[in-house]
Design goal:
Helix content: 40-55%
Shape: globular
């Protein structure tokens, strides 16, 4: 069938879209509210030429060119669409599905219409009063959820899109009461339970779209859904912070919060759907900024499976009901620019129900390769005035544009094919049961429920092992720290049954040394590098530090951890002054402060001998020091990892030893999974053990998986972090080598994730470290903002490995006796 090409002139002749002579500036204001100025024709021509050349080289346009191209109309727009379309075709061919545009056959499950946000364009969200008047419960019941899913499965749907308001229990008493009455602590906990029921009883694959989620919540939800999503919508702070703007009064529409969620999804290796909402008052620059932000997040983590470009549609009975809809040519230009910015391998989606059917071909020309979810059963609850196109009609319209329509699953094909670590083992069988060999939907596959089970983990592995490592493991069981270095190197290669046996030996040593308790500390992080005397935005003053300490104490913290080089513009006294500010207000808080590099910096700026400076810090209130910055104790490796900025090995060791001898105990650390070898890991552990024999100053050992995205420099030839197998082996061997020297091993849960943390707890680890409270006072002051593990989360992890959980102090005394 020959493709039917829809031009901008065709659309304009029907009166829906503007031409180059009639620019829809109402939805593209400048910051001052005036209309954005249209670029000159010469500038447009230059931008189009550069875009064409960049697309041919698979290079994204520069920011200024992307802004210019958003104004393309008439012939300029036709040229832009041609560039975007060719780029899309190139990407589909590279992906092995040339000429195929996808969609997901789904049902909407509107779990609740209550929300804590107040978006000025939304009709999905309702108040408790309106729901009660209509006789609607605050939440769908379990049976209502399952009935929607059953009907969808009977109609061949494979996706259950859970859509709901954002944390309604934070705003509405009726939501809290309903959840409590039904045995759930939160909306997200209820959604998780319903996702499992849907998987088991209907076979539909949950796609979770509950709004803002914490890192820990993403970890808890990953085993029950192949994919998740949350629209970025916009990076405009103005639309969130200024009264009368679209997101004013909506706490979870802060762009920084939403970008944190998107990044945390990447860090958690979750296939993630996100996108932009256009026409709600954002500027031209805002549109480009948002697209670049999503591109950069995906470049770091590789997790954004599709970017939705959604056009604003005004709705009755909303504050924005009189705002004009986004014009078709303005929308097409935005879709095309999004494709150019994201590149050929990105998937760009446009909802097919938000554009008139006879204009869908324009969006195909603009570079989309996915229509998103289309339901034969349920309406678009977010845009109920816009019915879904019939799937057969969507296929016909797609074919008229020269493309075939093919069903996909909630996770895009490359994630389906890769499986772990992107898809949790608990849900992977459900996903692959509905997939074809390529990873798209097998349209003939039966949609039936299957048992959901978490990743099988050894309840209590037994020591033993294959013939290769059996003798070494038996020797390690008798004398854990007594093997030769080459023996530990061999153990680090353990896999399969031998890895399970190694974990069992390490776990036995852990039980003998410290018992079965899993410990944790309630703490808060403070980044000392943010300290400033004048309090500009995003910096700390000593008054703010005391407020942080007060809030930490109120929230039950026993420790404040302070790290970071203070500015050269501050006096040397800033280091002890910060400690005194905490200690004077909350003397009972243990202050865990200053890495070796910061200790040396402070001593040099005070012109003091290091031992004297350490005594001064101790007198100011420092209780222990972080033993971070160890990386791998090899000068060649350290220089590569840090770009030459790290201390030499001898200086790191002498600084930590001086701290121990000054009465300041420390943690011991190792960063692994980059360019080091197993031999390097063993040598590192040997040096730590020898230092501990001299001083006895280490409180615990923390093995930290290397995360390339967090590295201060690009490390050529580095592995993309350790595998789960390597992490398990490293923790188990560390338990053996450090037996009799460093008793406690901590799981770096922010890097291991929940699944990895459970596994290392079964292989020698006894501590979960700190909960990392954010609080309400300057949550940005902590370098790991947003990655909070609540005590409830820790208790769940402990329960899952069948061990008791106990709160401790920094130095491992039990809190509360």
């Amino acid at each position: 069938m020959a493709a039917q090409q829809l031009t901008v002139t065709d659309v304009s002749s029907r009166g829906r879209a503007s031409t180059s002579a009639s620019l829809a500036t109402s939805s593209m204001p400048q910051e001052d509210g005036s209309a954005a100025a249209r670029p000159s024709q010469e500038r447009m021509a230059q931008a189009l030429d550069r875009a064409r050349e960049a697309a041919e080289a698979s290079i994204a346009p520069a920011h200024d060119d992307a802004e210019t191209l958003l104004f393309a109309r008439g012939t300029d727009l036709d040229n832009l669409l041609d560039i975007a379309s060719r780029l899309r075709d190139e990407g589909l061919e590279r992906a092995g599905r040339a000429g195929v545009i996808t969609y997901s056959r789904k049902v909407f499950i509107p779990l609740t219409h209550l929300c804590q946000d107040r978006c000025h364009y939304c009709i999905f969200v309702q108040t408790p009063g309106k729901l009660a008047k209509a006789g609607i419960s605050p939440f769908l019941s379990e049976e209502e959820v399952l009935e929607i899913a059953r009907q969808g499965a009977a109609m061949g749907c494979k996706e259950a899109l859970f859509t709901l308001g954002d944390r309604p229990e934070n705003r509405w008493q009726v939501a809290r009461e309903w959840l409590t009455e039904h045995g759930y602590a939160s909306t997200l906990e209820y959604m998780r339970a319903m996702a499992i029921r849907v998987l088991e009883e209907t076979g539909l694959l949950p796609h979770l779209n509950p709004g803002v989620m914490s890192w820990a919540e993403l970890q808890r939800l990953k085993p029950v859904a192949p994919s998740m999503g949350m629209m970025l919508e916009t990076t405009s702070v103005r639309l969130w912070a200024e009264k009368g703007q679209a997101h004013f009064g909506s706490p979870d529409k802060d762009p920084a919060v939403r970008m944190r969620v998107i990044d945390d999804a990447g860090r958690s290796q979750i296939p993630f759907t996100t996108g932009v909402l256009l026409g709600i008052g954002e500027t031209v620059r805002d549109r480009v900024d948002a697209t670049f932000a999503l591109r950069d997040s995906h470049a770091r983590w590789g997790h954004v499976q599709e970017v939705i470009v959604q056009n604003f549609r005004a709705k009755d009975a909303t504050a924005m009901m009189h705002r004009p809809d986004l014009a078709a040519d303005e929308y097409a230009a935005a879709v095309a620019v999004t494709k150019l910015v994201l590149g050929p391998d990105a998937r760009v989606q446009a909802p097919p129900n938000l554009t008139d059917h006879d204009e869908l071909a324009l969006l195909i020309r603009a570079g989309i390769d996915d229509w998103g979810g289309v339901s034969p059963l349920t309406p678009d609850h977010v845009n109920p005035e816009r019915p879904w196109p019939q799937i057969d009609e969507l296929a016909r319209l797609t074919a008229l544009a020269g493309y075939a329509l093919h069903e996909r699953l909630t996770a895009h094909p490359h994630f389906v094919r890769q499986g772990e670590p992107w898809i949790d083992p608990a849900v992977l069988p459900h996903l692959r049961a509905l997939a074809d060999d390529y990873g798209l939907a097998d349209e003939a596959a039966p949609v039936v429920g299957r048992p959901w089970r978490p990743q099988p983990e050894p309840a209590e592995p037994t020591a033993g092992g294959g013939a290769g490592l059996g003798a070494l493991l038996e020797a390690a069981r008798r004398d854990p720290a007594g093997l030769d270095d080459e023996d530990y190197v061999a153990l680090l290669a353990a896999d399969g049954d031998e890895l399970e046996a190694l974990a069992a030996v390490a776990n036995g040593v852990r039980r003998e040394r410290v018992g079965d308790e899993i410990t944790y500390v309630v703490n808060r992080n403070v980044d000392a590098s943010l300290l400033d005397r004048t309090r500009p935005e995003g910096t700390l003053t000593l008054d703010l530090v005391t407020a942080l300490a007060d809030e930490a104490a109120e929230l039950g913290a026993t420790e404040v951890c302070v790290q970071g080089l203070v500015s050269d513009e501050l006096p040397a006294s800033a280091y002890p002054d910060l400690i005194r500010a905490i200690h004077a207000h909350q003397p009972q808080l243990h202050v865990h402060a200053y890495r070796p590099v910061e200790l040396l910096d402070g001593a040099a700026r005070f012109h003091m001998r290091l031992p004297d400076y350490l005594r001064m810090l101790r007198d100011a209130g420092v209780g222990t020091v972080p033993g971070t910055g160890a990386r791998i104790l090899d000068d060649r490796i350290r220089a590569i990892l840090s770009g030459g900025s790290e201390l030499p090995v001898a200086e790191w060791i002498s600084t930590v030893e001086a701290a121990h001898r000054a009465g300041l105990r420390s943690t011991a650390t190792m960063v692994y999974g980059h360019i080091e070898t197993a031999t390097d890991q063993v040598a590192h552990l040997r040096m730590l053990a020898e230092l501990q024999r001299r001083t006895g100053g280490f409180t615990e050992f923390i093995a930290m998986p290397f995360v390339p995205q967090d590295s201060p420099v690009a490390v050529a030839g580095a592995r993309p972090g350790p595998t789960l197998r390597e992490s398990r082996a490293v923790h188990a061997v560390a338990r053996l080598m450090l037996a009799g020297t460093i008793d406690h091993l901590q799981a770096a849960w922010t890097k291991l994730g929940f699944h990895g943390t459970r596994l290392v707890l079964r292989g020698g680890v006894d501590d979960l470290g700190g909960v990392l409270i954010d609080g309400e006072v300057a949550p940005w002051a902590g370098p790991e903002q947003g990655r909070v593990l609540t005590v409830t989360d820790m208790r769940r992890i402990a329960d899952e490995v069948a061990r008791p959980l106990v709160q401790r102090t920094t130095t491992y005394e039990r809190v509360g006796g």
